Each structure stands twice: as C-alpha cells, then as structure tokens.
C-alpha cells in the first residue's frame, strides 16, 4: 500500500476583522521575504510568517502591519505574488494594484502600478479580474477575468516607474477563471466556463473537447527536466467536482491534441466547486479546497503516473485563502478563514495516517 500524507496544525492566529465571502484567494506568501499578505474588508495585513509558525521558522520577529486599501480599490478578489518582488491585488472593478514587498515590510507601502483592465460593458456583471500570471521571458502580464476574453499586457519597469501597454486581446466564448504560463515561458493555458482547456503558443490556440463541468483552475505538469515543447507537459485541471489530467499529444505535421488521460471525482455533482489552489513544486504536490464542504485535499503527481489524491482536513467555516510552500524539506500549508482565523499546518506526504477518499453517499 503506498504511503499517504499526514497533516498537523502547528500555529493559529486570530486577525482583527473578517474577510469577504468571495470565491478567490485572499492570502499570498513571499518565500523570499518570509511574509504573509492577508486581505480583509477595507484593509490588508502583512506579517512575518514566523508569527504564525514560531520556532519552526527562522524569522520570528516583527508584527502584523495593517494598511488601508486604496479608496478606488473595491473588493479584492485575489492577492497573489508577482515575480517574487510584489504582492498584487486583483479587484472586482477590474483594477490591478502592484505593491513592492520591500515597501510593505518597511511599513511604507508604495504602489508602483495601477493597471486598469476594465472596458465598457453593458452590465456590471461582466466586471472583475480573476486570475493573473507573468512571463518573465518576454515581460508579459496575462489576465483572465469575468468577461469573454484574455488580456495580455507588455510590462516596462524601472525602480521608480512601471507602465503597461495592452498588446493582445484573445476572445473567448465565456469568462476565464484561471490562466497559467508554462515553466519554460513559451506557452500559456486557460480554463473557463466554456468547459474547455485552451493552450496558446506564439501564434496558435489549441482546445480540448468540452468537459463535463465548468473549469476553475489549471496547472502545468512537466514530464521531463527542462521542458521546452508542448508534449513535455500535461495539465492538471479542476472542474466543479472533478480533477482531470490532460495529455498534450503532438504528432508530426498535425496540431497538438488535448485529451483527458485521468479523471477523478472529488465532490458532488450539484453545488460543488474546487475554488482554491496552492502548489509545492519541489514535492510535485497541489493542494485544493472544495466548497461547500470546505475540504482540503492534496494531489500528488508523478509524470506519467495517475495522480494520488488524499483528503487532509475538513474545516467548519469558510476558507477564503490558501498558500503552501516547502522549507527544510517540510511542507507547510496556510489557510485563512472568513472569520479572520489564520492557521498553519505541517504536511508529511509519506506518513501512513490518512483520511482516504471514499465515495460520497447518495440519497
């Protein structure tokens, strides 16, 4: 029997305030600076992760610093890490804010860039930037949002001023919850409400057949060291209650084919949604949270092998933020609750204590 993971809570802090009931990630972590960023209602907090982990992390000094959100910054859907140096906030009104982490750590926040990703629309229901990724190879920002397109911007940056210019708008049939750039920086992928996986190279777009449910997240999985071709990857994709492994098949003289290789049912067909994702690439592991059960589970992938999926924890309140990282050959998972409770867990992927996945009871 293969060994399976064990999870143990190692730290908990109650923040002052609550977070929005919003189905996006309101927690970010910078390994380089050892700093957490938590989005609350009308403010965000930044603190050394040592305040949560104590002696398990070398950086234990410091305190939580609280900063008000910009008055023009409506509800933040997602906070994420940009190129190791910035926290960025993706907002419901399509504005994107870039804050250098160094200025936040010093207690003097300085916004280097405010990107307006909005455009005239007939209804406010088509507002909200949902996802972001960056290609450092050619300095491109790629944004997915609550509208039927993917926006691509060229970034020009200096120590004093950043600027952007939209260089591409890729029309889609429905909105785009997630975009991801490949590790080799030559391709990017998106998933959306059209139930399809889209892969883009320099001049082409390739699509999978429509899958069973709406799609919410995508991750590139390298199948070899130093991948540089599409066939050197597969994709991990989440739907409402399903996790797919998508193979990318290339044959001479033919366009790449995107085909389902594995499919795992995690939740229930009606009402489930896998809405939070965090990766630890050193361990080839992805963590997800599924609603409405607020269940944390782990997917361990290994090149061509079928992914191994294990339940880690069931929470009793809504999870609004999820981050994971490795340090000193140990994995840590940090979760933020809507109530402001911030919790840290240590995960050993090779212990034999576990909660096995069993079929959900049916009426």
Shape: globular
Strand content: over 45%
Terminal residue distance: 31 Å
What's the rounded overall pLDDT mean? 85
Output the number of helix runs.
Answer: 2
Largest sheet: 4 strands, antiparallel
- For the largest beta sheet, what order do the strands appear in spatially? 1-28-27-26
Secondary-structure element pattern, one letter each: EEEEHEEEEHEEEEEEEEEEEEEEEEEEEE
Rounded Rg: 20 Å
Helices and strands: which structural class?
Answer: mainly beta
Could you name the ranges where pLDDT drops below 50 across 5 or more consecutive residues? 56-60, 352-363
Total beta-strand segments: 28
Helical amount: under 10%
Q: TL;DR of this structure?
A:
With 363 residues, this protein is mainly beta. It has helices spanning 50-53, 101-105; strands at 6-14, 27-30, 35-40, 43-48, 65-68, 76-82, 86-91, 95-100, 113-116, 129-135, 140-145, 149-157, 162-171, 178-181, 188-191, 197-200, 205-207, 215-222, 233-239, 242-249, 257-265, 273-280, 285-291, 295-302, 305-314, 319-327, 330-337, 341-348. The strands form seven sheets. It has a four-stranded antiparallel sheet with strand order 1-28-27-26.
